[in-house]
Write a structure and sequence with these properties.
single chain, about 325 residues, mainly alpha, 2 domains, flat
Length: about 325
């Protein structure tokens, strides 16, 4: 059963990545209305009479989402049944299904009734949480036979708090990036890293879309620097802990790629492949952060018995 769970979890995680990229593809190609205002069918038909590229992209995304949704439900049920004794499994199983349903419902609402750009931007964040839940279930399955050994890892409280804060901040940055896409502000600034390198501080000339674009760049730059600073702390405090050390090395590599692809979006004039890679990299980065949230929660739980023991132990005084 463990082999089946491993295989199913890997397939489901990859499938969720495709669902997320499919949603990004729909947005970037303007295919959100490819099936009209009907859902789950296209133009109210099982096989539409008029086939357009936008319809193919939108309907393919729905089809892939439906198939992957079945694997998510199956993985959650099997994980609950066979490894439900592991602390985080039941919570993640519920989260995987709940956010998958929320993701689908929001997609349906957008198609049938439309939503403001500020609401649409939240869709990508919901998709990220859905992906992360499945990704963490996969890592838990691989922990069972010590393929991923975290038994000796303890994360200090100050570093746990920073991991939580960094994760919340990442969600805010992701939201601003999605807002850039939905407000069509991708190419409103012709230069990088400033909107206009010849006059970088001419803020009075900024349009609303340029403020959105530059706000995202500023926040993304701060995320990049914060990740570097935290990685230095990891090197100093957890060099012998392979999961912590190599995990944050991966996070640093991913956020570096994210900045690179963000710049390349401007230089390539919104090349579709580059834009999709930009979405994929931040998805992987967020998944890594969520894994360290889970490890941090374990450290916090392991700390509680020691604190209770210290609080209840009688004071020993010397004569």
């Amino acid at each position: 059963m463990l082999k089946i769970l491993k295989s199913l979890s890997v397939v489901t995680t990859i499938g969720m990545a495709f669902v997320l990229l499919g949603g990004a593809l729909v947005t970037k190609t303007g295919s959100g209305e490819g099936c009209g205002d009907s859902w789950p069918l296209c133009e109210g038909q099982l096989i539409p009479s008029v086939i357009t590229p936008e319809l193919v992209i939108e309907f393919s995304h729905r089809l892939v989402s439906g198939v992957v949704g079945i694997t998510v439900v199956l993985l959650s049920i099997l994980a609950w049944k066979y490894i439900g004794h592991i602390r985080e499994v039941k919570f993640l199983a519920v989260m995987s299904i709940a956010f998958l349903i929320l993701q689908a419902l929001l997609g349906a609402v957008v198609v049938m009734w439309g939503q403001p750009d500020f609401v649409l931007a939240a869709h990508f964040g919901i998709s990220l949480i859905s992906f992360a839940s499945v990704f963490l279930l996969t890592l838990l399955i691989f922990e069972i036979d010590k393929k991923l050994d975290t038994s000796g890892l303890y994360i200090k409280k100050k570093h746990r708090i920073e991991i939580y804060a960094l994760s919340v901040y990442t969600m805010i940055v992701v939201y601003t990036g999605a807002l850039v896409r939905h407000t069509e502000a991708n190419l409103v600034c012709g230069d990088w890293p400033f909107c206009n390198n010849a006059a970088p501080f001419d803020f009075a000339a900024y349009s609303m879309e340029q403020w959105i674009q530059m706000g995202h760049r500023l926040m993304a730059g701060m995320l990049f620097l914060w990740t570097i600073v935290f990685f230095i702390k990891v090197v100093k405090n957890y060099r012998s802990q392979n999961v912590m050390y190599y995990g944050w090395m991966a996070a640093l590599g991913l956020i570096t790629l994210q900045v690179f692809f963000g710049a390349m979006i401007i230089f390539t004039l919104l090349n579709l492949n580059v834009a999709l890679l930009h979405a994929l990299v931040i998805t992987c980065y967020f998944g890594v952060l969520c894994y360290f949230i889970m490890l941090s929660s374990r450290s916090a739980k392991a700390e509680q018995p020691a604190l209770k023991k210290a609080e209840t132990s009688p004071l020993v005084t010397a004569d």
